[in-house]
Every structure is written in structure tokens, then in C-alpha cells.
Amino acid sequence: MVRISDRITVIQGDIVKLEVDAVVNAANSTLLGGGGVDGAIHRAAGQELLEECKGLKGCATGEAKITKGYFLPAKWIIHTVGPVWQGGQKGEDSLLASCYRKSLELAREYTIKTIAFPAISTGAYNFPSERAAGIAVSEIAKFLQGNGLPEKVFLVCFNKETCRNLQEAFSGVFEV
Ligand code: AR6
């Protein structure tokens, strides 16, 4: 039996370059592209991604939808819409947890073995990075406890602060 902590890895880098079965996009509710990681994914995947996204008719906050990966190394893109931080009293924590859970449910449904998440909502949507890291690691750990798929989850950080927060959250959850 592989330990849950061995199925989660924090890595620094650009999510669009990762050779995983699926990458998760921190999208907005239109699913028609934007800045940050969303912009990077759309640029790298190409115009056909936008065409497929137009057919999805958007996505609610806390939900997730899947498309092909087109020119990405990843076969699939799971688009999820994180909450905009509004001070913490508007259900932001549970909506963020839902993004991770719904993305992982889709991954399981599509027999995805390896998946990479960006730090959802911690950029343009202003969710406090440390708090978001705790939610990400505990929600993923909870899901993996009950599921064999995905086998491996990468938490991708783009800057040092996010890396530090994710590593600390990982240590906190797994007491390493
Ligand atoms: N690889 C990995 N992580 C990245 C990359 C990358 N290439 N680029 C940025 N990040 P954000 P949000 C990190 O703003 O807060 C968009 O316009 C970034 O450092 O991309 O959920 C959408 O269309 C940060 O830690 O997403 C929405 O309108 C994290 O990804 C809105 O932004 C998330 O930052 C969503 O905002």
C-alpha cells in the first residue's frame, strides 16, 4: 500500500510544461480564458481549446469541467472555478475545497493517474495563500484516502511564497 503522503508532491514550475495525464486550470466562470494560469494554459493549448470551452457554457464556482489538452503535454485539462476572496465569510473555504474535490472526482471518472493542480484562487482571486494551501492539502489527502485514482497528485507552485505555504501545509497534515 502506497502511503497517502507519497502520492502528493509539491513542485515548483510552470504547469503547462508538465507531463501528467491532466492539469487543472484555475479558470473563471465563463471558461473562455483570462490571465494567470488560465491565460498560460490557453496560450499553450491553442485555439481549439477555446472552441471546446465555448461549448461548455461556463462553470459555477466550486465546480469543474473537463476538456482535451490539445497542444499541452497533458491529455486532459480540468477547468475549475475558485472563489473570489471576500473576507472569508462567504463560503470561500468550502468552495475552494469543492474545487479540489470535484476536480479529483472528474479525474477518477476519466481514469486519470497523474494530475497537477495550481494554487487555485491565490492569484487574481486573492485567497490568502497559507489558508488556501491548508485546504488544498487536506482536501486532496481526504480524497486519496478513499480512492486509488488519481495515483499521484502534484501541487504546482509558481512563486516561493506559494511553495513555502504548500510545503508547510503538507508537513502539517502529514506530521513530517
Ligand atoms: N503554472 C503554475 N502556476 C501558475 C502559473 C503557471 N503557468 N501561472 C500562474 N500561476 P491565478 P486565480 C499561479 O491568478 O487566483 C484568471 O484571469 C499563480 O502564481 O492564475 O484562481 C482566470 O481567468 C497563483 O499562485 O488564478 C480568473 O479570472 C495561482 O497560479 C482568475 O484569474 C493562481 O493564480 C482566477 O484567479
Could you walk me through the main structural features you see in this protein, from its secondary elements to its overall organization?
- The structure is a single chain.
- The protein has 176 residues and is α/β, with parallel strands linked by helices.
- The chain has a single domain, classed as 3-Layer(aba) Sandwich (Leucine Aminopeptidase, subunit E, domain 1).
- 39% of the residues lie in helices and 18% in strands.
- It is built from five helices and six strands; from the N terminus they run E-E-H-H-E-E-H-E-H-E-H.
- It has helices spanning 36-45, 47-54, 92-109, 129-146, 160-174, and strands at 8-12, 22-27, 64-68, 76-81, 114-117, 152-157.
- Strands 1-6-5-2-4-3 form a six-stranded mixed sheet, with helices on both faces.
- The chain binds ligand AR6.
- The site of ligand AR6 has 25 residues, from strand 2 and helix 1.
Tags for this model:
single chain, 176 residues, alpha/beta, Leucine Aminopeptidase, subunit E, domain 1, six-stranded mixed β-sheet, 6 strands, 39% helix, globular, binds ligand AR6, Macro_dom, Macro_dom-like, RNase III inhibitor, deacetylase activity
Amino-to-carboxy terminus distance? 19 Å
Widest sheet: strand order?
Answer: 1-6-5-2-4-3
DSSP strand count: 6
Number of helices: 5
CATH fold topology: Leucine Aminopeptidase, subunit E, domain 1
**Helix content bin:** 25-40%
Work out the count of structural domains: 1
Largest sheet: 6 strands, mixed
Strand content: 15-25%
What's the CATH superfamily, by name? Answer: Leucine Aminopeptidase, subunit E, domain 1
Name the overall outline: globular
* Uncertain stretches: none
The CATH architecture comes to 3-Layer(aba) Sandwich
Average pLDDT rating: 98
Domain Macro: 1-174
GO molecular function, one term: deacetylase activity
InterPro entries: Macro_dom, Macro_dom-like
Protein name: RNase III inhibitor
